[in-house]
Write a structure and sequence with these properties.
Layout: H1 6-13, E1 28-32, E2 35-38, E3 43-46, H2 49-52, H3 61-73, H4 84-97, E4 102-107, H5 110-125, E5 129-133, H6 142-147, E6 162-166, H7 181-196, E7 204-207, H8 223-233, E8 237-241, E9 268-271, E10 282-287, H9 288-291, H10 306-321, H11 324-343, E11 349-355, E12 358-363, H12 373-385, E13 388-389, E14 391-393, E15 399-403, H13 411-426
Parallel strand pairs: 3-13, 5-6, 5-7, 7-8, 8-9
Antiparallel strand pairs: 1-2, 2-3, 4-10, 9-10, 11-12, 12-15, 14-15
Helix pairs in contact: 3-10, 4-10, 7-8, 11-13, 12-13
Length: about 425
Amino acid sequence: MNGDDLLGRHRRVLPDWLALYYEDPLEITHGEGRHVWDSEGNKYLDFFGGILTTMTAHALPEVTKAVSEQAGRIIHSSTLYLNRPMVELAERVAHLSGIPDARVFFTTSGTEANDTGLLLATAYRRSNTVLAMRNSYHGRSFSAVGITGNRGWSPTSLSPLQTLYVHGGVRTRGPYAHLDDAGFTAACVADLKDLLGHTRAPAALIAEPVQGVGGFTSPPDGLYAAFRQVLAERGILWIADEVQTGWGRTGDHFWGWQAHAQHGPPDIVTFAKGIGNGMSVGGVIARAEIMNCLDSHSISTFGGTQVTMAAGLANLSYLLEHDLQGNARRVGGLLIERLRAVAAQVPYVREVRGRGLMIGIELTEPGTDRAAPQAASAVLEAAREGGLLIGKGGGHDTSALRIAPPLSLSVAEAEEGAAILERALRGLQ
């Protein structure tokens, strides 16, 4: 514990519901590459990246240089003035989005991005009904909490929106888990059609291609494409929440929605986290007719501020120039196979899932499907003791470890982290 009792000071001035990891919470003071150090000088391999936010590397020279140089010129002016870094990043994001005639609006977080996406969809469709996935998470604002399908992260049932929840975000649980992939998709589509027959046409479906807080769960590839076909026939929009899946993290694709691309791109894509590599950058991409549908003025005081846009530009350039998506595919594939080999010998592990460098390890009581939250906490603590930081998550009946290192992770670092995790998991026996 720090000599000035930082934990005690934290508890006296910050909310009780502001979660902290670990029985003895740590203060991270600095980082470099894929490693961070705490206030006591302990070094850790970082497999969580500030909740999937440090996407490329800690203290990446290209990003810190861009931030420093921009801060020496001007940090902020708001969207009321022309902003060259914002225009340049918007041009690159629009081009990469896959959405025709795309427009980009920058925010400061994924929560605000999803809030804006919901505003656009409901205004465009003149409906306050929204479809969301069970086990989903979309942020902390009033509207985002209102559509979140994960009880652990939804503190109120009050909402400006009417939300209807759809099956399909979790492949290995729920009433269709016993079906093969084709049968699972067909059953979820039939459920969606049945649901739409009982309500006025909603504004949109919002869905994470891979559910983040929900424990890195996902449906079979193509499920959201099948959903899109049903939705498009009724004019209902598809919002892809790419806050955690965007920018190549899943390895196979630059955007998570591209695993479901048979019937075209989403109408709206929301993003955040990794693009800023720790700076507060979020945003929305939408077709021009949708983005421009608002009939009143709007601005963003801090969205698109020059210093965060400079960081985003430098970070995106580094990501593309060094093919970090390809690295996520290669190194992530090796890491998943290594962890599956370990899991086969640990009765507490129900499933190792994911793609690229977005990997979930679901823990249950041995021989059952019952969640094992104490086991998840024990592994979290043991991994820290071994020098590895990971995350955790899951829905009402899951306990999942979340593994999401910076995308520049090396093979040697992946092996080092896997070895620490192996010892932590074997310690459950």
